[in-house]
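Example 3.2
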Amino acid sequence: GGGALAAVPTAWLASRLSRAAKNMPTDPTPTRDHLVGAIGLVVTPVSAEGYGEVRVRVAGQPVKLNARADRPIPVGTQIFVVQTLSETSVHVETY
């Protein structure tokens, strides 16, 4: 009897909490368009004819991307994204 008495309010509370979590508003999922204008750092040198790597923040999370540039950019240089080439690669310029 005591177990059933405790189970009913617990089940009601669990259903209310799961319904509230299901209907909770969230931010939109970041896409490649959110990368344009992002500021970051070069972590692998970017050559003029190939790819390097940069780290930028998107929605507060660090993201490492392949990067191209019109001229070579050394490690540690601050950059900004001017164009997204694909989901994982960007075109950057020095900031």
